[in-house]
Write a structure and sequence with these properties.
The chain is mostly helical and 112 residues long. The protein is built from 6 helices and no strands. The protein has one domain. Helix 1 runs antiparallel to helix 2, helix 1 packs across helix 6 and helix 2 crosses helix 4. The chain starts with 5 loop residues before the first helix and ends with a helix. The mean pLDDT is 91.
Length: 112
């Protein structure tokens, strides 16, 4: 996943969950599982966890962190990333539930 790809994917996932179940408890569980999966994989990518090369290499990124930050569209000097940039990256993870919720609300509005 990446900060450029995750928001639209989470919006789409929220809309799909909204359209496929009327059970509120099941929808909450699916939403929580979806966000947890996105955050877990994304954190692992950002931390350059071994074994995830098959996710970022096809996009031309040099590392999982570079993929998370640029989706492979630009180069990042990881040695120059300071604490404030790491904090900003972590703050983006906090928005993941909001992206999912946006998809849920969009699907509800479209169904009216």
């Amino acid at each position: 996943m990446s900060y450029l790809l995750d928001p639209p994917l989470l919006v789409a996932a929220g809309a799909a969950i909204e359209r496929t179940t009327d059970d509120e408890a099941a929808a909450k569980l699916l939403g929580a599982a979806t966000v947890a999966t996105f955050v877990g994989v994304s954190l692992a990518l950002y931390a350059n966890a071994p074994g995830l090369e098959r996710i970022w290499k096809p996009f031309g990124a040099r590392s999982g962190r570079e993929f998370m930050l640029t989706s492979g569209l630009a180069r990042v000097d990881e040695k120059r990333i300071g604490p404030s940039r790491h904090a900003a990256a972590l703050a983006l993870f906090a928005l993941y539930p909001a992206w999912l919720r946006l998809g849920t609300l969009a699907a509800r509005r479209a169904a009216r």
